[in-house]
Amino acid sequence: AKDVPYNWEVMYMSGAPDCIExxxxxxxxxxxxxxxxxxxxxxNVVVYLTNKLHDEGVVIHWHGIRQLETPWADGTxxxxxxxxxxxxxxxYNFTVDKAGTYFYHGHLGMQRxxxxxxxxxxxxxxxxxxxxxxxxxxxxxxxxxxxxxxxEQEKDLDATPMRWIGEAQSLLINGRGQYSCTLTxxxxxxxxxxxxGCKFTGKEQCAPNILDVEPGKTYRLRxxxxxxxxxxxxxxxSHNMMMVEADGNYLQPFIVKDFDIYSGESYSVIINTxxxxxxxxxxxxxxxxxxxxxxxxxxxxxxxxxTGVSKRPKHPPPATPLWNDYARSKSFTYKLFALPGSxxxxxxxxxxxxxxxxQNYFEGKTRWAINNVSLxxxxxxxxxxxxxxxxxxxxxxxxxxTFIDTYDITKPxxxxxxxxxxxxxxxxxxxxxxxxxQNANIIQDGVSEIHPWHLxxxxxxxxxxxxxxxxxxxxxxxxxxxxxxRNTVVIFPHGWTAIRFMTDNPGVWAFHCxxxxxxxxxxxxxxxxxxxxxxNIPKEALSCGLTGEMxxxxxxx
Length: 557
Ligand code: C2O
Ligand code: CU
Prior knowledge:
about 550 residues, Immunoglobulin-like, six-stranded mixed beta sheet, 32 strands
């Protein structure tokens, strides 16, 4: 184990990631996406993060890293730390304890949507082996991209009535997409919608990624999605993929032609290149679960070194499955199981929490609510305020742990209004918790949306999914044999998802929908567990709100 140090400056940039110029992109050290982190199991990742934004704070969350014994390094504004002020430097220091494909991203307001993200790859320890073989690897970080800035988006979402941000203009692969031109037709022609073929001279930021491969070899593709909104599907022309890893945990391998990936998820897939190839192939990424017609698909090129890189693929990019074919999405998701030998869940739970996801209004603004409570963060980070007993820092009434069992999830909420609160769920330490996420109909008749939920500080076992309202009859369907361990899981429209985890990591952890505008509109909860056991919170993490005042008065004494 060693220290893996990084010196990063977070700054505004301008650029044209999808061929359209945009400013107020948030980058790191002049790069968008931010530089990748590469470490090995047991390493200490040390990031000195300097905020070079002029007038806003910043934090970075290390998505999928559990932060065992370092809950203050989780990088969640108002939860684990105070935002880093402009001009200041914060030292993140945490151990990466599990090999896998992770990523990092901003966790203040909608800074993630502005481009603050990058990959975080953890390799097995020196001399150890993964349970699958590969000759080389590539990372694909997927995101969606709007031409409007986040300041305006946040204003729109907070307006009365709310103005929805709409679908993304483009999908990006490693920060590259094409909005004003298309790769799918030759440069001098147009597609059926009149979009011209892309003409690249070679220097364009929006030129597609090229994955250079040799024939007859095995490659690992590490794919992560940090989209603000879009659910995606990934396919490679004429190459099957074997799913082997999800969110830093091994899967029972299975073969697919394409796979879905929701915001907050990561997968590794293994591909075998053809023994002989005289041409190149498209990798394509398209939108699922929402109307895709306004969003330009993302493409990358699988380039066989046995042929010229400029040679156009013989076949068009693989089509993305029908966006609203939920049966297809479910059939993929229901095939995910843990590799034999993976940790098994405890057979029983100590506590069970039911979380009903609804869309509501609060004072005329559209909000998302959990058991009719919409989350509003406060200025003082919970980790400090709970540790030091600052009861004025947030709402001391915890949100309800269940909802009425006569609630009709097929209809809009009978009471369209919700409460807004900063209350937390106080979980008992060292226990087994089940959470049943229950989806419901939104305010509009006949509509329920997809929500990928992400838990900080933990992996959880995905015990099962189902359509409709979770009930006793579903109890027997829960998988206690080989449920996959994950940190992000989807709830399908009008359906439920059951997870189990252990409260074994002292800290304050967000559990929320990873769709950024949904979180912004209150779609999340806060779990506090064993906070009295937390040690060594750095002062810099506490230098705002009531913990800031507390530190000041200590200095005076
Ligand atoms: Cu990747 Cu709280 O999020
Ligand atoms: Cu959501």
